[in-house]
Design a protein that fits this description.
By secondary structure, the chain is mainly α. The chain contains 14 helices and four strands. It has a two-stranded antiparallel sheet. The protein has a two-stranded antiparallel ribbon with strand order 3-4. Helix 1 packs antiparallel against helix 4, helix 10 packs antiparallel against helix 11 and helix 12 runs antiparallel to helix 14.
Length: 359
């Protein structure tokens, strides 16, 4: 693919994403109290009447922008992917294989390191060993910033789900103890409520899969995630009830760190750290849901937890513990699929190819 053609497809993709994202935002209650959205809804309804397509005026605005922008985005991605594939086939096959194998090896190390960190201090009999105590005291604090980051992703998931479904983000916050709260208005609660836990699990799963399967994109992915986190923090975060600025510290801190990681660090470091963060984020989401299964009445003051609120509103025949169990099962499936398709399946392919090459 020629450079000029690639630029055209990239611009079309960016325009499509901007159409979907900005259109949904500018017509939501978050912008101008929803006045622009009401005016546009009236215009679309009038247009639907003129062309005798009444269903057009009944579409929620986020769905309208998604339906009109997504086809162009998909077409752009297809042709960009085809061009990248053509260019890749013209490059050195050995170099490509070397990068892929290195990324898979580093992903495996990141998976083992994340599981090691996760189990620090949890194994029976560790307290009796002084060397393990030192190791635990040294490494366990690494999980506290990750715990806060998972809460950030959780509350951002609620907020983005509200925005995407036509609602408004009033603000989200994090407390030093790892709890958090997202305040939204409007939107579809049936999607907003599970978007916290399942959003964190989906974030971790997609991050691991993309980083493991497409290592060449890892540095750009780090920069993109860092900038996105900074933007969310600047525009939508707020102090907690006690005036703590934990959410700002977490958002700006992780955002700047990810931008610096993608900008300055080698690819192998990006793969290792992003995959470690991805696994820890997914595991935290799963364990949080497991806690709700055992403690369905958990909450913050008078505020019910997400699973209990979902059960009360939408599944009165299913208690909150069952809803939490279903969500945890979905989270485990997402994380397992990411590890399988992102790591174990490619490793199996490499081994099979090596065996065939020897024969």
């Amino acid at each position: 693919m020629h450079r000029r053609t690639r630029i055209i497809w990239v611009l079309l993709l960016l325009a499509s994403v901007a159409w979907i994202g900005l259109g949904s935002y500018l017509t939501s209650e978050q912008f101008d109290g929803g006045n622009l959205g009401s005016e546009l809804s009236s215009e679309i309804q009038s247009l639907g009447s003129e062309i005798q397509v009444d269903a057009l005026g009944q579409l929620p605005l986020p769905v309208f922008f998604l339906a009109t922008g997504l086809p162009f985005a998909v077409i752009s991605i297809f042709f960009l992917w085809r061009g990248i594939k053509q260019n890749a086939s013209a490059s050195s096959t050995d170099a490509e294989a070397g990068i892929r194998r290195q990324a898979l090896f580093v992903s495996l190390l990141a998976l083992l390191f994340a599981l090691f960190l996760w189990n620090i201090g949890d194994r029976p009999g560790q307290a009796a060993a002084a060397n393990v105590d030192f190791l635990t005291a040294t490494l366990a604090p690494l999980l506290w910033p990750v715990r806060l980051f998972v809460t950030f992703v959780h509350e951002a998931g609620h907020s983005l789900a509200a925005l995407i479904t036509g609602g408004e983000i009033l603000g989200f916050t994090i407390s030093p103890n790892g709890s958090g709260l997202a305040r939204t208005a409007g939107g579809y609660p049936a999607l907003i409520l599970p978007a916290g836990y399942l959003g964190a699990a989906l974030f971790g799963s997609l991050l691991f899969f993309l980083t493991s399967r497409y290592p060449k994109l890892t540095r750009g992915l780090s920069v993109f995630l860092g900038l996105s986190i900074i933007i969310l923090t600047v525009f939508f975060s707020e102090r907690d009830a006690n005036g703590n600025i934990t959410v700002q510290l977490v958002g700006i801190g992780f955002g700047v760190a990810m931008v610096a990681l993608g900008w300055l660090a080698p690819r192998v470091i990006n793969v290792f750290l992003l995959n470690t963060l991805a696994i820890l984020t997914g595991l935290n989401a799963v364990m949080d849901l497991s806690y709700l299964v055992r403690n369905p009445g958990a909450g913050i003051g008078d505020i019910m937890n997400d699973a209990a609120a979902f059960a009360a509103e939408y599944t009165p025949l299913l208690p909150g513990s069952v809803v939490a169990f279903i969500w945890s099962a979905v989270a485990v499936l997402m994380l397992g699929a990411a590890v399988y398709f992102g790591l174990f399946k490619p490793v199996g392919g490499e081994i099979s190819g090596a065996v065939k090459g020897k024969n």
